[in-house]
Each structure stands twice: as structure tokens, then as C-alpha cells.
Amino acid sequence: MVSEIERRQDTRLDQYVDFYAQRTQGLTVSAVRALFSVANRPEVVSLAGGMPNIKDLPLGKLGDEISQLICERGMQVFQYGSGQGEQFMRDHITEVMAEEGIHSHSDDVVVSCGSQQGLDLVTRVFCDPGDVVLCEAPSYVGALGTFLAYQVEVVHVEMDDYGISPTALRQAITSLRAAGKRVKFLYTIPNFQNPTGITQPVSRRQELLALAKEEDLLIVEDNPYGLLALDTEPQPALRALDADRVIYLGSFSKIFAPGLRVGWVLAPPAVREKLVMTQEAATLCPPVSAQFIVSHYMENFDWRSQIKVFHEMYRARRDAMLAGLEEHMPPGCSWTNPGGGFFVWLTLPPGLDSQAMLARAVSARVAYVPGTAFYADGFGSRNMRLSFCFPPPDRIIEGTRRLGEVLKAELAMRATFGIEDLPPRPGLVPGPAPDIL
Ligand SMILES: Cc1ncc(COP(=O)(O)O)c(C=O)c1O
Fold first, then answer.
1. Which residue range is the domain that position 42 belongs to?
2. Does residue 142 line the site of ligand 1, with CB under 6 A?
3. E runs forming strands in 277-423
């Protein structure tokens, strides 16, 4: 005879459903992921992917030297290491941060598997379910996924052309506290923000830090793109302006190689202790071999000049994107003008919905990420993120041409049928695949 349990298991699509933790609620694969698998076909110009373009790395020389490194020091390269990360790696990390004005001690650095894991560790250390994290509106999809996984309530704070608005931030803090909510930190990406490409000028940074002090607010500064400033010198990091209130996340993904997964957290000593213990519980130690490779690269290659090579490559792509948008976008569109990083944020004319349009765009062989991916609350349907990091300039221009055609057709259809504006829909969070980060 079939028991009740067996019957239930037979009729369920997912037989593990009764066992999942509450925090996995909402961790479902979005339909958009399926579209992205099509978007990765060569005939599609993908303006969606945020993958660093590492074609200019000296791979041959690196390969030879890494194989020599393994022959000579393999016993250490392939061994377990310190939960905080290797001393030599942490020393090099302080050199990278010095480029953005941060004076730090290697004792206060915790190496992580990319800054993504740094974000996970920080959230684990600070957030209980129901706590609030303040984020820019819009914000990085991978961070929203992390916050959601820890059942954190994300409250988006309005941005202007200079980043997060201090007035809106103060209002949000006041009303959340009045409602009895615990605001744990502000998560901000001050340089070439993902997804908008907006950079906070120094005056805005100072305003935010003054406000944070007044309101006793912690800031988590996520800065993977800071050294990819294409038109000016890098701005001083928030952490360079305030060492006590800012927890800093950095990464080698955009200045060297994302596949090595080496990032870091710089935190005051008390926090750093907790991060190390959390890191040990999560992974025992960050990968030692990757730390050897990054350190070898920094010691034996001119990593600063390599960043300049990246600048040239990304600048040509950024300029192609801006020229293509200027030429091909229909009236009523506007977009940001990033001074670095990987992304442009496009605002569509009223009534157009980037998520609804994505399938049509992919059929027209161009892909983007709908703006809804970058909001935890369903906004963003009139926006899309376009990344210029990967395709060559002529393909980027062709991508903007195809996108322009899709938008023009969409506008013509709306003019013909007078379709009503759509209400906000739930966003795409969570479930970012690494190729759209
Ligand atoms: C703002 C931001 N933070 C963090 C990350 C994760 O980077 P990492 O490769 O260091 O984990 C990304 C990746 O795209 C990002 O855009």
C-alpha cells in the first residue's frame, strides 16, 4: 500500500520541498535565465554580461610562470592556509588599496573568495532576519541576492546624478527607526556603480560620511571598479576618508582575473575577528593557490600598467556604447555617462517595459539586463543595464542599432494600440547567474 508520505512525494515536482530552510523561499530560477542562455549565442550581441574582459592579460607568460611556481613551491601552493588569508597576499592587498588613498594594515584585511563572499561574510556577521540594509536604488543584483538569502529587508534609497541622495537617506533612516526597524548598514558602490555607472564626487562622499556619523550608521563600501576610472584619477575611497565607520570590500576580479576569486574585506579589528571566524566556518580558508598566483602576478608583472591597458580597451568600448546610443536611441530615452567601470543605465520612454521587451530584443539578437533585476521591490521596469565591457566596439554599436530598432517598433506599436502603462512587477532577484553580474 502507498503511504501518505509516498503519495505526497510522487505528486510533487520537488520532493525536498518540506526540508528547505525558510531562507530559501524565493530562490527560484527566473524565466530570464532561460533567455540568457539564448543570449549567449554568438549571433546575439550581449550587452547583458558584466564579465571582465581579460583578453589583454599576458596569459602565455603567466602560464609559464605559474607552472614554475607550482614546481618550485607546490607543497605550499596546494596546502591549506590561514582563515584570514596569507600574510603575503594581505600585504599586497594594502598596496592595491593605497592606490585609492586607503592607508591600511594587513592585519585588518580578510581575504575572501571574491568580494561576493566578502559581502556574504559581512551580512552573516551583522544581519538577523528582518534587519534592514539600505541600498542605492537601483543596486547590484548579487548583493540583493545575498541580502535576500539572509532574510534581510532591503530598503532602496533614491539616487541622483551624484549617487545616493543624503536627504532621502536621512528620511529613510528616520522613518525606519520610527517604525521600530533595525537598520544595520548602508551598502553602497561609490565608483561606477553597478548598474548605473554613477560615481559619487568627493563632496557627496563627505556628506554621506557626516550623515553616517550623525545617525550612527555603518557603511559597507563595495568598490570593485574604483581603479577602472577612464577619464580621471581614482577618487579617494569612502574608507580613505573615514576608517572607523566604513567596512571596505575589494576585489582582483576587475583589475586582474575574476576566475581566481580573490577579494577582500578591510574592517576594524573587532569586526575583522568575527569575519575570520565566519570565514573559517564557511571555507576553512580562502584558496591558497589563487593567493599565490595573484601575489606572483603583483610581484613579477607590472600590474599598474596592465590596468592602464584595461583602461584603453574599456574606454574604446564605453565610447562606442555612448556613440551608438546617441545615434540609434529613439527620442524619450536617456542614459548615464559613466566615467569608468562597465555599465550604462538606460531609461526608456514612459510606457515601455524592459522586462516584457526582453524576449523580443533577444529575437532581434541583442540582450540587456532589465532594470527590475536591480531592485528588490519591483521597480526598474522602465530601465535597462547595458554593459560595454565585453563585445568589441563595432559589435557594441551594432547592438545599440538593434536595440534602437526594437524600441522604435515597440513605441510604434504602443502608438497604434494605445496600450496602458504597466504596474511595477516583482523583480528578477534572486538568481543572478555569474554571467550577468
Ligand atoms: C558591485 C559588485 N560587487 C561585487 C561583485 C563581485 O565581484 P567578485 O568577483 O569580486 O566576487 C561584482 C561583480 O560583478 C560587482 O559588480
1. 19-55+306-417
2. yes
3. 334-335, 343-347, 366-367, 369-370, 383-387
